[in-house]
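User: Fold this; tokens only.

Assistant: Input:
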Amino acid sequence: MFASYFFYGCWDWRFVFLLAFSTLLDYYAGIKIHDSKSEALRKTWLVTAIGINLGFLGVFKYYNFFIDSFSNLLSLFGFDTNYPLLTVILPVGISFYTFHGLSYVFDIYNRRIEPTRNFVNYSLFVSFFPLLVAGPIERATHLLPQVERPRKFIAAHMSDGLRQILWGFFKKIVIADNCAEYANLIFNNSNSYEGSVLVLGAFFFAIQIYGDFSGYSDIALGTARLFGFELLKNFAYPYFSRNVAEFWRRWHISLSSWFRDYIYFPLGGSRGSNWLRIRNTFIIFLISGFWHGANWTFIAWGALNALFILPSVVMSTNRQHLDIVAKGKIAPSIREFIAIVGTFTLTTFAWIFFRAESLTHAFSYIESIFSSQIITNPFQYPELKRAVLCFIPIVPFFIIEWFGRENNYAIERIGLSWPRTFRWTFYSFVIFFIGMYMQTMETDFIYFQF
């Protein structure tokens, strides 16, 4: 626990007190919810915990957004407003550890678990350093029992964790950071490029955000395994999904399942009329978009994904494709391949809103794609000629991901049956690519800002 707090304090020691207060609040509220005899008192403590947690989140993450939006609305009616804005930085990981604590009090209120009386154990559950700043969003039902029971060193778990860490670094450094260079260049200068270049920019960002976020998750899960912990799986090869509903079962799984269990199901889920299912779907995706950041672009991104998934919800086909695509086969069928490409295209289109600086920027970007020449060579510009080199690691990366899609992470079983020389040669090539493609400039993980 103390090491995790030290880790968090290395970013900004002042926000350690916010983390500690949030932890103490949920720990105490959990005990009071469990021990209270009346339902009214139990609900009072639940609402108190929710209100304070979301209050901190609202102040640090959303205060400026609401004030600015309200001021813009009033200005449309001729009112001149000058409300003060906060100049504090967003505490890293606040969305993640807030949701850790909320799931804990929710589960106690719903009598799924009993509260722990050991504050150190609970603090470690909330602040465990691999997941503290960018997830996955853990549940007390899953992680807390692991914290409370003794752990022992297992060599096989250590080597497995190191392999996953290695693959996570490859995703981040080789795939994400190099795609980020050109995605940033194209998005930041979108008015200067033709449609084909803008399509390339959207493609690079789609690859960047997957490599960046799933790469961090691999590093977090592998690091936790070194300490004897098994964290929740956060990604399951989402770009091999056959429809948008399957994509959201495979992307940021811990957040999607959190919203499903604590918001979607209590609202009624898929039960009831089509209107209720449509309403619940939009609520979930709008909240998911808003969770990602205080910008209308994220809300538009959530709404767009809701529109994409809506047909399968209305026709009750959203539970299709629960299996692994082309399981046990070398290649997908033509129908599956078309479905994968179509889903990736829709997802990449939605990522434009996620990446854009504003709604105006997003609509301008999309308009430029369809209003300018889209069938041209995107690498004709001098500053983009080297962008083609990004495909050198991207192609084998997705080939490895495809053949490893039935495993927890792509290289989990690669080389285990090979002679040691061949196995270590493969690992050496991965390390070589990491060193060769490493950027000279530091590139933060995207989800650190959430």
